[in-house]
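TICKET: design request
STATUS: open
ATTACHED STRUCTURE:
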């Protein structure tokens, strides 16, 4: 058996392992170990695994993962999500579909201080869904707008997917963060336009009684109270992203400063006792260890594929087909979106990027731009059945048996269409992703 055949067999066995329920990290490590053992020897394979694990996460950069996760957890427990929603609810109170717009706006701001879609989905399911239903919005729309807008957390910096992409592509994480700002704003704007369009053209889709579409969403707020609620959020965003963009902090330092700022906010709001602090720290540990374990396994998998010559062979094969860069890109994005229907976003990136990044480089594609459109395509998978992580997160956070998984998928479907349109826009205009990144 040739090295290339072993590499192909490794991919097939890895996908089969995932399909039958094996953890993605374990599947990557086992298939990589067996493949290297077949190419070299079991002894070499053991040293190969040890060296890859040591090299994968010893870099100072990887401190960014637990620090940003900690910041997100502290922000969630401090009640910032509810305050953000209250402010946007007040600002959008006279606009058709105002509560839907408030949910999108609050999610966009919340994304800028968490970076985890699951956190956004769980927080706003509890905050926004009951409020929208109380004001006459349909249950399907209420859960759909929360699930749809929660994906902004994976694009607007700081983003966990951007960190993973930067590591796998050996690209600056800070540059990837900055590259996500404009696409994140464009995506949030697209969601807002979608809601306004539905409110004017198909009010029955969002309101239980379409005649109430012009009713003012009453929420007692003033400029003073809104400023008091929004100021801590604004200061934290300015501290993290301003310091990062201004060159004051490295991504790791920005994570540390952000975590410290989130801790101060939680303490000043008196939302953090010893029990909650312990829960925050343990949850941060669980998430960070899971992500770092996946990075170790992905690094091993990537090195194994390079050893077999698989990426070079696939690059030559794609080039020989004469598809050109856009033909390759369409095929790649279609595969990513299809994979999103059955496995989670991180797993998709770990499986696909070691194979496709050499091809993208061979076509002269900008790796930062390629990363942004990859993240958007992966985000679509968060809303598509049967997997739909954000959808299941919304369902698990709900306390309403009348709302089914099918309702949430149906409510999120218009947002899937909007994301697909935005993905096409980002492909057509790469400067939207690269302009700030290369300033």
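STATUS: resolved
RESOLUTION: sequence designed for all positions
ATTACHED SEQUENCE:
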């Amino acid at each position: 058996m040739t090295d290339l055949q072993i590499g192909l067999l490794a991919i097939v066995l890895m996908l089969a392992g995932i399909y039958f329920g094996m953890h993605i990290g374990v599947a990557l490590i086992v298939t990589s170990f067996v493949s290297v053992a077949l190419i070299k020897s079991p002894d070499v394979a053991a040293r190969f695994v040890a060296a890859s694990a040591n090299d994968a996460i010893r870099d100072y950069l990887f401190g960014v993962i637990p620090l940003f996760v900690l910041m997100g957890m502290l922000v969630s427990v401090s009640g910032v999500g509810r305050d953000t929603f209250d402010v946007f609810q007040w600002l959008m109170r006279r606009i058709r579909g105002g509560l839907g717009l408030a949910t999108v706006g609050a999610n966009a701001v919340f994304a800028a201080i968490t970076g985890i879609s699951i956190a956004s989905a769980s927080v706003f399911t509890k905050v926004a869904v009951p409020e929208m239903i109380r004001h006459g919005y349909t249950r399907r729309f209420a859960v759909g707008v929360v699930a749809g807008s929660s994906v902004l957390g994976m694009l607007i910096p700081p983003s966990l997917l951007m960190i993973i992409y930067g590591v796998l592509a050996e690209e600056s994480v800070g540059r990837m963060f900055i590259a996500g700002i404009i696409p994140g704003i464009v995506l949030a704007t697209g969601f807002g336009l979608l809601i306004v369009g539905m409110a004017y053209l198909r009010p029955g889709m969002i309101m239980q009684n379409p005649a109430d579409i012009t009713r003012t969403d009453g929420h007692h707020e003033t400029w003073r109270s809104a400023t008091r609620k929004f100021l801590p959020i604004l200061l934290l965003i300015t501290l993290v992203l301003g310091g990062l963009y201004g060159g004051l902090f490295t991504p790791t330092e920005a994570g540390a400063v952000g975590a410290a700022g989130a801790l101060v906010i939680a303490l000043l709001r008196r939302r953090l006792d010893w029990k909650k602090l312990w829960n925050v720290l343990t949850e941060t540990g669980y998430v960070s260890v899971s992500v770092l374990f996946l990075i170790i396994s992905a690094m091993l998998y990537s090195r194994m594929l390079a050893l077999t010559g698989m990426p070079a062979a696939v690059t030559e094969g794609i080039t020989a087909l004469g598809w050109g860069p856009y033909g390759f890109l369409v095929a790649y994005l279609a595969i990513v979106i299809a994979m999103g229907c059955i496995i989670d976003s991180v797993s998709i990136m770990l499986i696909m990027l070691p194979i496709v990044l050499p091809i993208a480089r061979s076509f002269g594609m900008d790796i930062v731009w390629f990363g942004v459109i990859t993240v958007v395509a992966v985000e679509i998978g968060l809303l598509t059945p049967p997997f739909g992580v954000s959808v299941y997160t919304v369902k698990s956070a709900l306390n309403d048996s009348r709302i089914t998984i099918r309702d949430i998928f149906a409510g999120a479907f218009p947002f899937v269409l909007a994301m697909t349109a935005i993905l096409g826009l980002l492909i057509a205009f790469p400067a939207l992703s690269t302009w700030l990144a290369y300033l």
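CLOSING REMARK: The chain has one domain: 3-434. Residues 3-434 form one domain.
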